[in-house]
Automatic annotation (TrEMBL):
Organism, as annotated: Heyndrickxia sporothermodurans
UniProt keyword annotation of Transcription present: no
Record NCBIfam families: potA
Name of the gene encoding the protein in the UniProt record: potA
Subunit record text: The complex is composed of two ATP-binding proteins (PotA), two transmembrane proteins (PotB and PotC) and a solute-binding protein (PotD).
Family matches, as CDD domains: ABC_PotA_N
EC category name: translocase
Protein name per the record: Spermidine/putrescine import ATP-binding protein PotA
């Protein structure tokens, strides 16, 4: 734990009745002032983590700390957190000003002070002049900003955001991603953001926790997680991946599709079975005899920036390639990749073991 830790989960389990645990002994730390994202498929437990932090539900086991103090039994209204919900949960019968002022009125703040604070926050989220507007007269993006103003007016130490952008269309969603990130930087407070959209998570976060089935699969910066996924689930969930079975012959030598390749990984047992990941953008198309692998082009789609080319090797593995070069469906072509493009994953490795192996590897001067 560092001095900068604001929230800490220690072996937190959440279980309803006799059902399987929704969260299964989850431990993590959240540092002050950073943008965190909880990322994972529907039902993996993201919202449950937010609800536990906010105090809307209690842990079945384990401890939750806020600023070093155990808060398992502290009621929601005494916690220094505010939540922005997916549907914003604005009050439709109150105008913009009163929606933002709501929390301050409950705290019985003086009217003059409320006027000043609400005005300030509305300016902060670019809604100056909208004070008397009805909520139904506001667009999706504007409602979003009202919800954020309502959360920050209480000066919480942490803001929890539960899929706040999911109701917006793609263009507005992208705009709001920039806006939210910028807002977090200006405010300097901790944001914990929930999404099942991996691109959104990669674009916005300082740190990502990837969840599946009630467990944190991997935590790290967007580049850590993209470049060094810990297992098949993470590799598949974060971006598109080619994943094939392989064998680690010895340090820096791996075998897959019946061939041996130079790689940059080490620390495995000789001939250990592994899984290999190569990202589609790390594969280059060559003439059929000039690549490291021979494949047949099965289909091709133009995606604007690149072609998405689907190929199969002789063993029947699918290879997805992102290339600015066009291929011909039915042709045999070669695929070239650098040793650094090969990422080797160990079966059943825990995050701790994975981090240790990576650390040892980086200390040896093989940092990438
Ligand atoms: N009150 C409850 N009683 C029983 N089961 C619940 C309750 N609340 C949530 N669950 C279950 O807990 C699991 C995790 O739910 P949670 O809302 O945390 O998932 P999520 O990752 O946020 O999913 P989504 O992206 O769909 O919102 C789900 O299987 C859900 O059905």
């Amino acid at each position: 734990m560092t001095d900068n830790t604001i929230i800490r989960f220690e072996g937190v389990t959440k279980q309803y009745d006799d059902d399987p645990a929704v969260l299964d002994s989850v431990s993590f730390e959240i540092e002050r002032g950073k943008f965190y994202t909880l990322l994972g498929p529907s039902g993996c437990g993201k919202t449950t983590i937010l609800r536990l932090i906010a105090g809307f539900t209690e842990a079945s086991q384990g401890e939750i700390y806020f600023n070093g103090k155990m808060i398992n039994h502290v009621p929601a209204n005494e916690r220094q957190v505010n939540t922005v919900f997916q549907d914003y949960a604005l009050f439709p019968h109150l105008n913009v000003f009163e929606n933002v002022a709501f929390g301050l009125r409950i705290k019985k703040m003086k009217n003059a002070q409320i006027q000043q604070k609400v005005k300030e926050e509305l300016k902060f989220v670019n809604l100056e002049g909208y004070e008397t507007r009805e909520i139904k007269e506001m667009s999706g993006g504007q409602r979003q900003r009202v919800a954020i103003a309502r959360a920050i007016v209480n000066e919480p130490e942490v803001i929890l955001l539960d899929e706040p952008l999911s109701a917006l269309d793609l263009k507005l969603r992208t705009e709001m991603q920039y806006e939210l990130r910028e807002l977090q930087r200006r405010l300097g407070i901790t944001f914990i953001f929930v999404t099942h959209d991996q691109e959104e998570a990669l674009a916005m976060s300082d740190e990502i926790f990837v969840l599946n089935k009630g467990k944190i699969q991997q935590s790290g910066t967007p580049t850590d997680i993209y470049d060094e996924p810990i297992n098949r689930f993470v590799a598949d969930f974060i971006g598109e991946s080619n994943i094939v079975p392989g064998k680690m012959i010895q340090d820096f030598k791996v075998e897959f599709v019946g061939k041996q390749f130079e790689c940059v990984d080490r620390g495995f047992n000789p001939n250990e079975s592994v899984e290999i990941v190569i990202r589609p953008e790390d594969l280059e198309i060559t003439k059929k005899d000039q690549g490291k692998l021979k494949v047949r082009v099965d289909s091709q789609l133009f995606r604007g920036v690149h072609y998405e080319i689907c190929c199969y090797d002789e063993a029947g593995n699918e290879w997805l390639v992102h290339s600015t070069k066009k291929a011909v469906v039915g042709d045999e072509i070669g695929l070239y990749f650098d040793p650094e493009a090969i990422h080797v994953m160990r079966f059943g490795e825990t995050e701790e073991e994975f981090d240790k192996r990576l650390e040892a590897y980086n200390e040896d001067g093989h940092a990438n």
